[in-house]
Give the backbone structure.
Amino acid sequence: MSSNSGIETMMNLIAGMPDNLESSSRLEGLSELVPLIDSPDSVVVCGMGGSAIAGDLLRPVFEDAGVQIAVNREYSLPGWVDEKDLLVFSSYSGNTEETLSCFSEALIGNSPKLVISSGGKLTELAFENNIPVVVLPPGMPPRASLGFGLGALLNSASKLDVIPNCSADLSEAVEVLRAGIKSHSTSDSITAEWAADSLNTHLIIHTCSPDWHAVGSRIKAQVNENSKYPASHGCYPELDHNEIVGWDNTAGDYCLIVLRGNGEHPQVSKRVEITNDLLNSQFKFIKEFQAKGKSKLARIFSMVQFGDYYSCHLAQVADKDPMPVARIDTLKERLTEGL
């Protein structure tokens, strides 16, 4: 696949996110879920990469409903997990070894369990052990399946009566995403312009609220995988206690994008203005992206969409194919070989 055809494919996948999110309420397996007898103390999402980020992105939504959510990116379950916690095993392929390891460990316990996957060994084991599965459509790069994966987690939690119904916020998020396609997809968009200006630099993302710290992680990962470029992420207000000093001896090889939106603490907003002023001469550019939408879910998705398109535009100007992730594939092969 040429870089151009790969870019077209990824662009189409990004453009499909609103439709995927909208149709996530009709995924196979959702209709069979019934409310849990007891409300869980917490929700623990076990997953890696693009399959885990949905849990991080939804943390503010769950917390607003009074529900604690944790994302576990390890081979073992956290030591504090017990039968009062809902365990969600999320693996798009169904063959992620860390997630399978946690799933095997969980089989000896009595915690309520749910699998979100498109198939693979995880789905097979879930059916064998009578654990409900919400089935994702197969055949996509995991990072491009976020609309399905996040929607599956959100709708599952609602069906299990863990959080209230979020259909109104989901509908708004879908509309914000559809409007965003026009804003971000074209080669003459501001998003494409920023990507072109950041060619041959290291992208830094700063996030200004705990509601979208996870978006910064998502954009970093998208730039890594789609653009084949390095990226880093810092969170306010923490970055003002360390990172700000680290830029003393740098200039020109970095660019900074700050994610802004309703919900920032007033002191954080003040910190952003001062920090940008202090760092201005040491970055090729400093840009700010303002989230769209009224609900937290819509604003989160608007930022995610910006990052997805930015990474694809950067891949285009860098002449990179966003589809393959060769080093990840090689790593998995060598792990299978026992090397």
Notes: The chain has a mean pLDDT of 96. The chain has two domains: 12-165, 171-317. The first strand starts at residue 42 and ends at 46.
